Each structure stands twice: as structure tokens, then as C-alpha cells.
Amino acid sequence: MSKVGTVSRTKNIIDKHDFHIKKKYGQNFLIDQNILNKIVQIPSITSETLVVEIGPGLGSLTEHLLDKAKHVLAYEIDAELVQILKEVFSTDKLTVLNRDFLKCDIDSDIVELNITYDKVIVVANLPYYITTPIILKIIEESMLVKEMVLMTQQEVAQRLTSKPSTKDYNSLSIAIQYKTKAVIALKVPRTVFIPSPNVDSSIVKLSVIENIEQKPISEELFYEIVRASFAQRRKTLVNNLFNKYGIEKEVLINLLNDLNLDSRIRAENLSVSDFIRLSDILYKTI
Ligand code: SAM
Question: Domain 219-283 is of which CATH architecture?
């Protein structure tokens, strides 16, 4: 299929199928060929790679992914779009599942494809309203995904990649940076979508760290402590931990001293490594 004129391609498909854009599914379709060309250069896709696309929509990104990858496994919640995709693409390189990605078992769907691949990469222009749950689901549940290249709102992209002691740094930054190397790869203006969203976007590249050097004794406790520590961002770490676990403040201050951390420190000042050390010391205390 020719890749010239994505605007008219998208509009033609919409008209031909009398498709009505559904806001409830976060449908903002990419229509800029330049941006699409740039996006597909970002993931390390080879002709042996299995790409998982979440929300292929009308297939403008899918078309490029099919050119580069061995196979594309796509999850689309909107049955009407699934029908359209099946009509537009007649290739056995594409598997489209009419499923809510949040309810799928990604690794078993990949195994069911029964194909060989060099690696699995997720590429998606994500529906904004469920960006965070989708990213956390992949991070927590998939052993197979090695890389994610995701279009998110600029604000989310900043959180994912922000460093300690900055205003965007929060529990999501820590959860992501514990398991991946996160970088903003491309800024994307709102004008390249129809309909145009109210905010600009960014492409974030998350590369899963193969051998995490520093691991907490309990990942579950680590995530719980990170969430509890940011529960009230302006409060000190001691106050947030006291509220969550009821451990006496003096005991908490001594623990922080043992870690060479100031007793008035706030969650936003701790690095991922600090949180791991804190989690391990609390593991033995709680
Ligand atoms: N990839 C297309 C593009 O770039 O033009 C469409 C992107 S649009 C922002 C998001 C897509 O995700 C829509 O097609 C929408 O129907 C789909 N979607 C929304 N929620 C979903 C979910 N829970 N599971 C799978 N797909 C979903």
C-alpha cells in the first residue's frame, strides 16, 4: 500500500466505512507521514522482530510496522476498527485481536502465535486515559517484552523520565526507572492527529534493563513503600511512612540515619536506589 497522503488515506477510510470517532476509546489518529516515518525509526525492530501494537486504530502506524517487522500482534478494543483493519490489510504478518489490552495475558497471547522472533517490542500511540495502567501492566506482567516505544502526553513522558528532586518525579518515575532505561525520543505536536487533542505529546522509549543490578528483597514491598511515600507529596518521608505503617517516628528517623538520609527528607528527593535500600531495611522492621 502506498504511504503517501496519510491525511487522505485516513479520511478515505473514515468516509468509506462511515466510521464515527469514539472519544471514549481515546481515538486520536495519526495523520502525518513525516512523524510516522520518524516514529518507526525509534524502536530497534529487525525483520525478525515481533511487534505488539496496542490500539492500531485505522492502521497508519501498523502499516509502517508491518514493513519492518516479522509479525505484528495488535490489540484493538473497538470491534468496528478490527473489521476495518481486516479489510485494509490482507497479510498473514498481522494478527488483530479484538480485546481490551488491560484484560489480556500478553505473554500467553505471544506464545500462542507460535512463531520465532529475535525480540518483542511494544509500539503504541496510547489512548491517553489509560496510559499509566497499560505501562505498569507490561512492566509488571511481561517477561517477554524487551522494549516499549510509546506515544504519551508530554506531561506523562516527563514523569516517566524525570530525575529525583524535580517537580515531575513521582511514584511512576521510580516504578519505570527501576526496570527500564527511559528517554524521550521525539516531541510530537497536537496538530498531527485527527481529532487534535488538547495537549502535545512525546514518544518515550523504555528499554527493559536485562540484569537489574540492585533488586529489593521484596518487589511488592518496594512498590508499596514508593506509593506510600508519595501519598502526600509535601509531607516528609517519615510522616508518610508513619501514616502507612504506624512505626514510631523515632524508629523511622534512626532507620533513615542508618541509610545516611536526612530525617526531614521527602520522597521526591530519594533515588531509585535509596528506595530499594529503604525497602530492604523496612522489610526487616515491619
Ligand atoms: N494507532 C492509531 C494511530 O496512531 O492513529 C490509533 C491511536 S488512538 C490514540 C488509540 C487506539 O487505542 C484507538 O484505536 C482505540 O480504539 C484503542 N484503544 C483504546 N482503549 C483500548 C484498550 N483498552 N485496549 C486496546 N485498544 C484500545
Answer: Orthogonal Bundle (1.10)
